[in-house]
Amino acid sequence: MSKSILVTGGTKGIGKAIVLEFASKGFDIFTCSRHENELLGLKKEVESRYSGCSVHVMRADLSLKEETKAFAAFVKAKTLPDVLVNNTGIFIPGAIHTEPEQNFEKTMYTNLFSTYYITRAFTEAFIKRKNGHIFTIGSIAGLTAYANGGSYAISKWAMLGFTKCLRQELLPYGIKVTSVLPGATYTASWEGVDLPEERFMKPEDVATSVWAAYNLSPRSVVEEIVIRPQLGDI
């Protein structure tokens, strides 16, 4: 029976790179996006590149609690994934004291609340099975405060705290929990920035790190992965 991975927001950037990495290793894929056309394009691409790999997609806006829970139910009806990657996120630049209030709410619901609800949907079954690996895709913005980070940085600090707590709760049950904290990665979030592509990390490097952390023996876990561009933060 094939192993499976759930990656939220798997149609672009780091999420897509993780999907392709695990698909190349024979995993079935479960993912979501707000855009149906991107999901269908991903399904066609992955299944044509990796024979035997099955891609299951659902359009869902994970800034909405109801749609987040609906996506979790969609996956649970088909499988209990071996790997869960909480990747969905948005970045809206702004300062805490001047950004529109709705930026904070939308960012927290998308980045943090979706992680909370998706994770809770599977932890009981993971505990019963005594196996599973949960990754949260955070950011170095969750380690280092910076101006104009606003709600995004707050959400990533909170995600790191969430992941640390989850690690302590689940370690007795053989369930691994890993926080991934990438620096500037060449994704859609950086579109329009006047910097050469070579200054950024590749999404594939993050995906390779996730795969490597997953492949440790049951006796070890990588708790945090911090990856930065070779020339430092941007």
From TrEMBL:
Transmembrane segments: none annotated. Its EC number is 1.-.-.-. It is an enzyme of class 1 (oxidoreductase). Pfam families: adh_short. One of its GO terms (molecular function) is oxidoreductase activity. Keywords: Oxidoreductase. InterPro entries: NAD(P)-bd_dom_sf, Sc_DH/Rdtase_CS, SDR_fam. SUPFAM superfamilies: NAD(P)-binding Rossmann-fold domains (SSF51735). PROSITE patterns: ADH_SHORT. Belongs to the short-chain dehydrogenases/reductases (SDR) family. PANTHER family: ALCOHOL DEHYDROGENASE. This is SDR family oxidoreductase. The lineage of its organism: Bacteria, Pseudomonadati, Bacteroidota, Cytophagia, Cytophagales.
